[in-house]
Design a protein that fits this description.
46% helix; single chain; Nucleotidyltransferase, domain 5
């Protein structure tokens, strides 16, 4: 089993919002009396994936927006959202073709996965292997309880929505000595994007993936999949070494594993 721990950062899809609702983004927010934009009206601008081995080691931390550019698929030659969406689903299909693979997210069933499914829909990108709707119900990738396809930590720890996970990922990360939110939070992403600070958004997304991975490890220990403190500690230290090599020094400096 390969695990793909991932997180996305999004901004409002203003053109689609205006086409569908007939209002500007400002008018929509004023009418709804909230800054929150539903998954159907956002687009991904940063996607970071952490590849985790079957023995739960974090092997790589990849920002797809960086990988796309490095491979020559420049954003000026293709819609950025379309390029990111192709890279995301293409990467999942590549691992899926090699054997068992599972997404790992925090609240991804309610947000990250639907955002990426809607993006694939808008751009006509087929992800038939993910939408295996004719398989037996317990084998379907989108089945809420199929942890072999998608391990949503928020779902697991809340007993699949039996109680609200107040504090979210930030609380769970800080509870085990991980940095959690530092200088950037999700509400700042839109302004950073408008200001052209995509690099800062990417760094923030990488740190969120690291937090998600650390919380995943503690959840596995809770479930008895990781045997003891020493095992978990070794995996944490290895991941912090990877973070250091990715120049995420602030994350490492603020980590105090407990």
């Amino acid at each position: 089993m390969t695990y793909l721990v991932f997180d996305i950062e999004t901004v409002p899809n203003e053109e689609l919002l205006q086409a569908a609702e007939g209002v500007t983004l400002q008018e929509y927010r004023a009418a709804k009396e909230t800054d929150f934009i539903p998954v159907t009206y956002v687009k991904p601008v940063s996607i970071v994936v952490g590849r985790v081995s079957r023995s739960y080691e974090l092997e790589a931390l990849v920002a797809l927006e960086e990988a796309v550019q490095q491979q020559g698929m420049l954003f000026d030659s293709e819609d950025p959202e379309k390029a990111l969406t192709r890279a995301f689903w293409g990467g999942w299909e590549s691992y899926n073709n090699k054997g068992a693979v599972a997404f790992v997210t925090f609240n991804g069933r309610r947000y990250d996965i639907p955002v990426m499914e809607c993006a694939a829909y808008r751009h006509g990108i087929s992800v038939s292997a993910w939408f295996n709707m004719y398989a037996k119900s317990w084998e379907q990738n989108r089945n809420r309880y199929n942890l072999g396809a998608h391990f949503d930590i928020a779902e697991v720890l809340s007993s699949f929505g039996s109680f609200p996970m107040a504090g979210g990922l930030n609380m769970l990360a800080k509870a085990i000595g991980m940095p959690g939110k530092m200088d950037v939070c999700g509400s700042a992403v839109e302004q950073l994007y408008n200001d052209g600070n995509l690099d800062q958004i990417t760094r923030y997304c990488k740190c969120d993936v690291l937090d998600t991975y650390m919380v995943f490890l503690r959840t596995l220990r809770l479930m008895g999949r990781i045997s003891d403190d020493g095992h978990e500690r070794r995996l944490v230290q290895q991941a912090l070494g990877l973070a250091e090599s990715c120049n995420l020094k602030e994350y490492v400096a603020n980590a105090n594993y407990m």
